[in-house]
Amino acid sequence: MRVSMDIELKDTPGQLLCALTPISELRGNLKSIVHHHEERTPRGTIPVQLVFEAEPDNLDAIIEKLEKNGIGISRVDEKRLIEEGAVILIGHIVHTDIQDTIDSIDRTGYAEVVDISLSMPHINTTSSASLKICAVGIKELHEAISILKDVAEKKDLLVVEPIRAEFS
Amino acid sequence: MKVIRASIIGFGSVGQGVAQVFLQKKEEIQKKGFDLKVIAVADSKSAAIDENGLDLEKILKSKKENGRVGTETLSGLEVIKNVEHEVVIETTPTDIETGGVGLDNMLTAFGKGMDVVTSNKGPLALKYGELAKAAQKNNAKFRFEATVGGAMPAINLIRDTIAGNSIISIEGILNGTCNYILTRMREEHASYEQMLAESQELGIAETDPTYDVEGIDAACKLVILANYVFGMKATYHDVDVKGITKITPEALSLAQSEGYVIKQIGEVKDGYIRTSPRLVPESHPLAVGGTLNVVSVQTDLAGTVTSTGRGAGSIETASAILSDLISIYRED
Asked: What CA–CA distance (Å, rounded) separates B230 from A164?
């Protein structure tokens, strides 16, 4: 899960360390940090924006530790599905139970189909669809596409997936 | 100057291209420190032999006018067995079921300690290990740049130019016919059948296009790369193959609206070989159009190195054969 957080630090030495230690202690992976030292909030504190990845279960503990260290938290945004990938499906997509195809991804719990565009040019010709899949991580996105390929194989659908470089 | 005696076994489009290139590049070859003398040419019906060197212009003319290279009735294999020379240029047609005459030709040449330069994929896609062993045992050179992607440097790029790097994976477009059809389908929003017909009319696709469009040709090239680069013992039966015949113009449009093109991409990684239609970002180095081939090699030191060029054509393939010959015999 990706977390974006606005925090406020007192203008005394060692404050930034107090803010970052709880994150690293709970195996959070810091992605970016913007430290506005010249700015001040109305409360006279320094605003800092953090983005980090963490296990969803650890977020509450991180917040608790930050508050214990006297760090003010003014905003927390969580984004669970952080990796996105597109795939194209070709074949009799609707007639082979499109709901079941989508469910095979959605029921994983770690990936979801978030968008689908369908093109059905004529009756009795094959349809094409582009699916957007979001997942909690890159590994899970690969797994979701692999599940989709298994389902597609059984339904005689062709899956056109991105090249490997897209994922690295 | 050192004289290298060569035979050209197989005188179809590639063999004739080789003869034309030899005529055109005679001086350039000499500048590399050796003289190349073609002492025998064989096609499927006839042979021409002259120990003092054949007049290639005359042979090309004879092939064009009579459909034969000469009056001798020796087979290519008999030429290899009976005529003294240093290098066999093996350009017989690819036979993916048995390896065809090419396999016998190459093994016999190695057995006599002769070097082999080839454009023939069949024997390598089926028996690379046996061939490489036979070459090594007889201290013979074995070069096959022309088997993978015609004029596009792939094998020699990995062997020489980025030597010392560990290769992590290889991916690329290894069939110009598929690339042409997919490129044109996208441009014209036309069906696969329409663009196959166009490419057949232009001579880009064969009358029976199965070998190209079902991914078999690309699979053979991937096997050659897998065996040579990664030391795998694969044959083309080990490749996970999906062709382009099911691709629709709608799929190409949908891909385009997401910023992708669809390309027939071959891939070797972690012992797994596959070729299938894939989504490639429009601005990615692999997104080359027309009949171009491209190969992207992921390495430990150099990062990703990409090479692109013409994957077929008689002169283009002859270019790869010439570069192999020069790399073996050069003394400059």
From this structure: 19
